[in-house]
């Protein structure tokens, strides 16, 4: 593992490994490749792991756009109360942002019925593939953002997303005798 890390963290060593293979880095006189060839420096190993494991950490493409139509998380909202409000109870109005289905296009992202086409960048797969040395990387397509298709004539209200961000006000009744943190 240490040998692999030493090779991968140094761009020159990695290039030599790609061209000449594993035998280049074996030595019979002790020491390591860096001692015999004098290479130092390198790339950030976090970049390699991000490229390899990025899909496991939430970068996996989805079949929807950035505003994927899924249930939202529970809302947690901190409210300051006076002693009197906590004792007797109070009604407060809170504001938060939420994604709403676009009423102009009914959530389709387009005003036309047939305005989507296969993404020219990823050819409909939603991912782009690249190779760096002996590693192959798969990333979410930046053109279609993983959807696999692009909208030719996007809605002017939601810009092709099918949803838009809106501020919502909600009336919250806080009961009498509420305790801190509840």
Please, could you describe this protein's structure?
This protein is an alpha+beta fold. The chain has 2 domains: 1-43, no CATH class; 44-174, Heat shock protein DnaJ, cysteine-rich domain (Chaperone, DNAj Protein, Chain A, Ribbon), CATH 2.10.230. Helix content is 21%, strand content 23%. It contains 5 helices and 6 strands. The strands form 3 sheets. It has a two-stranded antiparallel ribbon with strand order 1-6. Strands 2-5 form a two-stranded antiparallel ribbon. A two-stranded antiparallel sheet has the order 3-4. The longest helix has 10 residues, at 11-20. It is flat and about 80 Å long. This is Chaperone protein DnaJ. Keywords: Chaperone, DNA replication, Metal-binding, Repeat, Stress response, Zinc, Zinc-finger. A zinc finger (CR-type) spans 89-167.
């Amino acid at each position: 593992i240490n040998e692999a890390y030493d090779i991968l963290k140094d761009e020159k060593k990695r290039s030599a490994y790609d061209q000449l293979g594993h035998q280049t880095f074996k030595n019979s006189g002790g020491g390591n490749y860096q001692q015999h060839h004098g290479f130092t420096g390198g790339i950030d190993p976090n970049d390699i792991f991000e490229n390899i494991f990025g899909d496991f950490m939430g970068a996996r493409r989805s079949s929807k756009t950035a505003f994927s139509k899924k249930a939202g998380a529970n809302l947690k909202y901190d409210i300051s109360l006076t002693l009197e409000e906590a004792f007797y109870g109070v009604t407060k109005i809170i504001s938060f942002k939420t994604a709403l289905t676009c009423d102009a296009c009914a959530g389709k992202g387009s005003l036309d019925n047939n305005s989507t086409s296969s993404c020219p960048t990823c050819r409909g797969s939603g991912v782009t593939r690249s190779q760096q040395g002996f590693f192959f990387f798969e990333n979410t397509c930046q053109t279609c953002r993983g959807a696999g298709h692009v909208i030719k004539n996007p809605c002017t209200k939601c810009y092709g997303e099918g949803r838009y961000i809106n501020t919502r006000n909600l009336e919250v009744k806080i009961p009498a005798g509420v305790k801190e943190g509840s």
